[in-house]
Amino acid sequence: MEPVQRKQRIFSGIQPTGVLTLGNYIGALRNFKLLEEEYNCVYSIVDLHAITVRQDPTALRKACFTVMSLYLAVGLDPDKSLIYFQSHVPQHAELAWVLNCFTYMGELSRMTQFKDKSQRHADNINAGLFTYPVLMAADILLYQTDLVPVGADQKQHLELARDVAERFNNLYGPVFVVPQPYIPKVGGRVMSLQDPARKMSKSDPEDTYIAMLDAPDVIRKKLRRAVTDSENCIRYDPENKPGVSNLMNILSTLTGMSYDQITLEYGSKGYGGFKNAVAEAVIEELKPIQARFKEYFADKAYLEQVMTASAQRAQAIAGRTMSKVRRRVGLAPTRL
Ligand code: TYM
Fold first, then answer.
1. Which of 18, 232, 258, 295 stands 20 to 30 A from 46 (CA)?
2. Closest Cα to residue 172, out of 322, 321, 328, 327?
């Protein structure tokens, strides 16, 4: 008889900030769905990470349900994947504390996201912002995760999670699976429409990003105004033509066309025609997602049912890892 192979596990998370961008979609969310059949997937809405910067409580609560609705709208199946709020599984915070004691200040000070965010939120450089990657490592390691689908901006955090897992395993024996990143070659870094040297980000002005819930006209307008160059030539060359290459990147992930095919097809149509084609591809991709989003977002009872059932199943997995961790570090077992 063939040995039964355990499906490998995936963990990923997205922060519940009001708007998810086309970068979040292409870099991460789209792959969540593509990987769902092949893996056991755990997809969290990481609300504890979100409070490392000041949030309006009402808006945060709403954003949590918005992101959950988007998870469902891209087609994730809650019978197959766990879809829950991070704060509903207390083991995330518990393991984060333990791992804090195995992570060095020097490692955390090298994190580029921390440096960026402390510049942007200079009035609130709190300890949570600093130890953010440790909570992220805890998220991943709790579920004995094999693979983590993320955009390229999370690579450094993933490397830290691997280092911490290996350090812990070297001290206490094989407690954690050491996770691998899954960063798409095309689409791992979607750039700003106005400054293609920067990644597309919801913390930049609105005309620099496309939101997953933008109306078709807004998408057309933002893409029409996207920064390109004066060469009027459609060629993939991220160094010299970052704007055009970014749009080619977007079109290529959404349609499956190669860069050569794109050059061939749109080369003679000028930047106007090319930008229109990118806009129509984005609109077509997002249209069904937006329609399903509306339905899910209006069905609070269903969302609550998904979040509760998933959190219960997540707690069972996380609880097993936490018991192991407690035993190995020498915390007395609970009888609660
Ligand atoms: P967050 O919420 O900033 O972004 C969610 C996901 O979207 C990807 N992403 C992008 N990909 C390509 N191009 C872009 N311009 C772009 N912008 C964002 C991010 O790489 C990410 O995959 N720390 C994480 C959330 C997190 C997490 C985790 C992820 C918490 N715990 C455990 C994986 C595993 C974050 O802030 O993502």
1. 295
2. 328
